[in-house]
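Bumping my old thread because nobody answered last time. Still need a sequence for this structure:
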């Protein structure tokens, strides 16, 4: 079953390669969506894919890349259509 998820990650998640980490993980899993830094210091991610891949990447987000320190991962549904592929967007 395919679903879309909106995620906000808090902690030391900017300036540590978090977006590149997410892009690599998402592309390896074949997910669609995007990742971007937010001006409030969080990272925002939207994924679309099969439930198994979504659960896998959510576990990876809790760990993050080696230089990160994730303190919170909030998830919710995402209803808007997403283009194929996964990319990093500019800060919002």
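Sorry it took so long. Here it is:
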């Amino acid at each position: 079953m395919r679903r879309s998820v909106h995620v906000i990650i808090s902690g030391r998640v900017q300036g540590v390669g978090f977006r590149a980490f997410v892009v690599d993980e998402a592309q390896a899993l074949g997910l669609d969506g995007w990742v971007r830094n937010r001006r409030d210091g969080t990272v925002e991610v939207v994924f679309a894919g099969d439930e198994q891949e979504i659960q896998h990447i959510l576990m990876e987000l809790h760990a993050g890349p080696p230089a990160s320190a994730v303190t919170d991962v909030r998830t919710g549904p995402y209803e808007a259509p997403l283009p194929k592929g996964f990319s990093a967007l500019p800060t919002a």
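The first strand starts at residue 2 and ends at 12. Let me know if any region looks off to you.
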